[in-house]
Structure formats: structure tokens, C-alpha cells
């Protein structure tokens, strides 16, 4: 349901000019930081990053963001303008991969623990089911059957403000975890054939970790 602005007090922005009038122009430094090729420090960041988010959309513009994680350096640098990200065993929905088949544009955000900055990479992606570099992507005996190759069009570091505001890396400031277990949430929001007890066993930390690479 679309909320009528006149009944809610919502004032919508409908043009780039209006947006710029509110935010102002970006700083020169923010504009000049864009690059199209990997710098040595980009490579070092990727070598230390164990986690990234991959944003995709289908041909109609329906969006998805998928988390990817592996040991640091899992994003394999092929050359100064190309990286590859291995796929690992998951739920097989393949939302992002299906999007790439109809719209190759992707956005990636790489994080490094304790660092507030993030590395953003935008480009065009393709799926490959075999390549010589797959041998370099083996983790705990698992050789990927699929990888996402990203041809870089834009790359830059994003400042730390968002993670500083969120206190993401400040465990001493984290609120107490009062959320129910993941099994209880799953049972509450969707139909499952499994009982709650079976789901608790399935999502148990130690047991679940054994399945990360197909075990």
C-alpha cells in the first residue's frame, strides 16, 4: 500500500535537483576517489577481507543483496580489472546468480574486521562453472563448482562514518542479545515440516559449522 503524502506528513523528493538542493554538492575528494583498476592497497584490502555483500537486480529492477564469506582473501584477483568470488554450499535459491543472468550489473562491498572503512566495487559480472583458478579457491577440501567473475568498472574506498555510528566493532557497547534463536524465528515466519526441536538441532552452532563446506 502506498501512503498518501497529504495524510501522513511525508514530503517526497522527486528530482535530482531537489536532492542536491537538500544535500549540497559532493566534496572534490569524494568525486576524485573513483578508479577503474585495482591499486596495490585495493589488493591488500581484498587479501584481508573475509566478507562482502553483493548487490544485484534482475532485468525489471527487482533487487537482492547477498552476503558472501570465506577465509580472508577469498576474492581471487585475476588481474588489475577482474576479480572472482567462489560459491559455497548454501540454500540453492541463487537469487543473485539468477539476476546476473538477466542483468550483469553488480555492486560489491568488502569489509575487514575492526576497520570502519569499506571497499566498494561496481562492475559487470558473469558466471563460470570451471576455470583453472578454481584450484586456488579450495577451502577445507571444497572446490567451488561455480564462481562469479566481476569485471571492474568503478572502485573506491568508502569512509568509516556508517560503521562508527553503528558501533559495529564495539562489542562493549552492544546491546544484550534478546532475540530468539534462529530456529524459533524460522518456525514463526514460515511453514516448515521440521519441528522446532529439529530446527534447533539443524541450526546448532557446532553442527551447522560442519556443513559450511558440504560436510
Automatic annotation (TrEMBL):
Name used for this protein in its record: Pyridoxamine 5'-phosphate oxidase family protein
Signal peptide region: none
Domain of life: Bacteria
Domain Pyridoxamine 5'-phosphate oxidase N-terminal: start-end pairs: 43-159
InterPro entries in the record: Pyridox_Oxase_FMN-dep, Pyridox_Oxase_N, Split_barrel_FMN-bd
Matching Pfam families: PNPOx_N (PF01243)
Amino acid at each position: 500500500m502506498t501512503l498518501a503524502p497529504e495524510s501522513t506528513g511525508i514530503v517526497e523528493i522527486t528530482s535530482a535537483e531537489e536532492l542536491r538542493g537538500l544535500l549540497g554538492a559532493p566534496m572534490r575528494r569524494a568525486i576524485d576517489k573513483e578508479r577503474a583498476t585495482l591499486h596495490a592497497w585495493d589488493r591488500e584490502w581484498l587479501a584481508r577481507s573475509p566478507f562482502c555483500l553483493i548487490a544485484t537486480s534482475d532485468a525489471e529492477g527487482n533487487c537482492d543483496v547477498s552476503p558472501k564469506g570465506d577465509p580472508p582473501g577469498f576474492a581471487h584477483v585475476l588481474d588489475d580489472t577482474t576479480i572472482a568470488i567462489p560459491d559455497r554450499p548454501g540454500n540453492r535459491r541463487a537469487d543473485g546468480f539468477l539476476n546476473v543472468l538477466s542483468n550483469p550489473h553488480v555492486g560489491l562491498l568488502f569489509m575487514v574486521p575492526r576497520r570502519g572503512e569499506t571497499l566498494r566495487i561496481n562492475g559487470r559480472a558473469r558466471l563460470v562453472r570451471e576455470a583453472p583458478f578454481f584450484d586456488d579457491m579450495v577451502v577445507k577440501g571444497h572446490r567451488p563448482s561455480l564462481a562469479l567473475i566481476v569485471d571492474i568498472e568503478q572502485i573506491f574506498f568508502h569512509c568509516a562514518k556508517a560503521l562508527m555510528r553503528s558501533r559495529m566493532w564495539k562489542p562493549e557497547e552492544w546491546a544484550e542479545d534478546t532475540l530468539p534463536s534462529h530456529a524459533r524465528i524460522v518456525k514463526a515466519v514460515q511453514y516448515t515440516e521440521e519441528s522446532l526441536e529439529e530446527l534447533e538441532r539443524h541450526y546448532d552452532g557446532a553442527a551447522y559449522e560442519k556443513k559450511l563446506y558440504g560436510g
